[in-house]
Amino acid sequence: MARILSRQLAIGAQWETLIGLQKEPAEIRSLAKSRDASFFAVFDDGVGTRTAGLFSMSEEGNAEGAPEPYALAAVLGEMVDAPNVAFLHPDPEDPDATLFITLRDHRPEVDLTVPTRHLRAGLDQWVSEVDGPVKIVGIAPLCCPVVDVTLTLEEIVAHVRKEQPLDARLKVVRKPLPVRQLKIASVSVATIALLLTAGWWGWSWYDDAQQARLAAANRVDPVDAYKQALARAIAAEPFSAGASHARRLQYAIQALPAMAGGWRPATIDCNVTRCEILWRRQAGGTFDLLLSQRPNAQIVDLDNAREIMTPADTSAPAPGRVAVTPVANAPQALDDDEDDGDARVTPVPRTQFLRTAGARLQSLGDYGMDISLSMPAPLVNAPPGVAARSDVPPPIAKGEWKMAGHLAFMDSVAGLMMRAGNMSLRELKIVIDDSKPVFSAQGTYYVH
Fold first, then answer.
1. How far apart are CA 48 and CA 254, in angstroms?
2. Sign of CA dihedral 186, 188, 191, 193
3. How far apart are CA 289 and CA 305, in angstroms?
């Protein structure tokens, strides 16, 4: 149940992100009805995401003559300049409870009053789930860490009375009109509709003629429509994730140390934008040793840590760099094509693709790798009856490719993509163990 502290600060809201599938007042009314809320406040994080705080409390909490209440979580979002904030403060109405309010990515999230004995566990759990630093403000009990910024309820009330932030002010949820008022409104609308119908029938013939004239003027040539649809489909494809992207992933993975302070990489999972590395502790490894060499690593448990790596700006490794492959006498990669620094995906004739990349995949399969190609399907189907026209662009089709095998052959992915020029990489996974380190890669190829 929500309540008001210091006669002006409302706590205990349920904060919901507005998704914008309908008008904001209608969405707020729908959320308030499902959560039995009578008041609300809307907070904007500054980048376009709006969050509604729903308060379930009696009308007495906003009685006439009392100061206008403000949502405490929203006021904190304006007062504290940090993306992730945890506010702790003793409950002025209960000596055994503590106010626990959080903001994640500038948006209110937790808005509770919790028993002080449970506060530390809740705070630690929330901090572990947040990506990035957390600023603790308020007045913390002895069981919790020291606050970064001391902030009291009296200081917050003083800020509210001085600034009067409109977004944080509580507003009453609009109730549906009573049945009698709905009937009156319906009769009024029906009367106006009848008056307008007479004029509409008089102009209907003119409207039909205008619509026919506009339809003739706006008739779209099927080839132009096909070109536009094809351009939109091409723009949505990951043409930038080609051979150069695969090279950058390869360089970033090869630059990883085989051991970092007694920890070694166990799995590496890469997509188009980033790689997630799971570090596993070996004998003698400690948290301090790992963080001294991999400061961006995040501890998962006693034996595992996670690190997010962005290989976009990775440069080529120096000659002789030792890769993460912990296997002696590993076979040489089958492809050695050099990266031109800006290789993008370009559709090629299907016959050319089969003679270059297809033949190379066959060779890789002979070496024991698992390979596959799916049948290509058109990005956009050409309209029927226009195939004979000279201005119809050649159709573009795409298919899926997959490759998996020993980690020593990982260089073959970028080499194959550089040789073909029409392949994009969607996913690259590596699993490293003492018996057989392996990798798997998959993506899309484009032909016409």
1. 40
2. negative
3. 12
> Tokens 């309540």 sit at which residue?
3
Tokens of 437: 């380190």
- For every residue of 351-404, DSSP letters joined together read HHHIIIIIHHHHHHHHTT-EEEEPPPEESSPPPTT-TT-TTPPPP-EEEEEEEE
With 0.85 as the threshold, say if the pTM is over it. no
Q: Looking at the DSSP assignment, which residues form a beta bridge with residue 388?
A: none
- pLDDT tens-place string over residues 38-66: 899 999 888 888 999 999 887 655 555 57
Question: Do β-strands 85-90 and 135-138 pair in parallel, antiparallel, or remain unpaired?
Answer: parallel
Contact yes or no for 91/98 (Cβ under 8 A):
yes
Q: Note the pLDDT tens digit of each residue in 82-128.
A: 999 999 999 999 999 999 999 999 899 999 999 999 999 999 999 99
> Residue written as tokens 């209608």?
26
Contact in structure between 333 and 414 (CB atoms under 8 Å): no
> Which parts of 249-369 are beta strand (E)?
263-270, 275-281, 298-299, 304-309
- Alpha-carbon gap, residue 357 to 398, rounded angstroms: 14
Paired sense of beta strands 275-281 and 304-309, if any = antiparallel
C-alpha 262/C-alpha 285 separation (Å) is 4
Tell me the residue type at 390.
Answer: S
Sequence-distant (6+) residues with CB within 8 A of 56 are: 1, 2, 12, 35, 36, 37, 38
CB atoms within 10 A of CB 250: 24
Report in angstroms the alpha-carbon separations of 333 from 265, 388, 422, 443: 21, 46, 21, 20
Count of helices and strands (H, E) across the chain: 11, 21
DSSP 311: G
Amino acid letter, residue 136: I
Q: Give the amino acid at 202.
A: G
Query: What number of other Cβ atoms are within 10 A of residue 439's Cβ?
Result: 23
